[in-house]
């Protein structure tokens, strides 16, 4: 599957691959040969080696990525509210938490825990045919008493 290879080709290097690249590079392999061996492009191989020669480590840099907007405690509170009342809205959760966070942040934290916002139906979406069938069903049973039911 060529698509699968392309996705892997540009994904992040894991710890094993970083160590493998450094080992091959120290034995004298070229960047192109290493890239072919670990099935990656030359750029991450080169970057890994440059980081090794510059910093003496191949570990992930701490602090990379976006900073956390909310604490773990607030995150648990958001999830708890969604579990207690599945029909609660993002704006209600935001007001209860008491922080100035955007609704998308709440949705993303709920999605991380496999929860989704559920809005209750105001009414069932009925077609005219279904409405007519329901009406006939009700009219046929309107004169029934308790024993008939």
Automatic annotation (TrEMBL):
It comes from the Eukaryota. Transmembrane segments: none annotated. Gene3D superfamilies: Homeodomain-like. GO terms for molecular function: DNA binding. Residues 76-140 form the Transposase Tc1-like domain. One of its GO terms (biological process) is DNA transposition. It is found in: Nucleus. One of its GO terms (cellular component) is nucleus. Its main location: nucleus. InterPro entries: Homeodomain-like_sf, Transposase_Tc1-like. Pfam families: HTH_Tnp_Tc3_2. This is Transposable element Tc1 transposase.
